[in-house]
């Protein structure tokens, strides 16, 4: 009887996990792949990997802001809307659907467009303007 219960639980777990949609694989040399990597690493809590998708100058300015980020919403979905590439520059627009789990009076989340500006360098495409959810990054203070 115990083995049937365990088997039933495993089947239910497999069905639930299998029901989640897989992330589409984008060509690594495309600007939208960089945005996908940024959002996936941010969603998984891997802030150092998220910082790696930024240009060096933006990474330097945003490192402190990234460490200060708390209470981020969960990214439920990111839908690619538009990619515009022009030489070594690109713009990627996505529609993010986010939720605030555990919030008092949980509203169920919201959806909004986010635009990413990218530059192509020897390291591939990198985000060049302060990306969501930061809005802006301040340069590190030089101290008193």
CATH first level:
Alpha Beta
Low-pLDDT stretches: 1-20
Give me the number of helical elements. 4
Q: Describe the biggest sheet?
A: 4 strands, antiparallel
Shape: globular
In whole angstroms, how far apart are the ends?
Answer: 70 Å
User: How many domains make up the coordinates?
Assistant: 1
- What's the helical proportion of residues? 25-40%
The secondary-structure class comes to alpha+beta
Order of helices and strands: HHHHEEEE
Architecture (CATH level 2) name: Roll
Radius of gyration: 19 Å
DSSP summary, beta strand count: 4
Which strand order spans the largest sheet, edge to edge or round the barrel?
A: 1-2-3-4
CATH fold description: Nuclear Transport Factor 2, Chain: A
Nearest-integer average pLDDT:
75
DSSP strand content: 25-35%
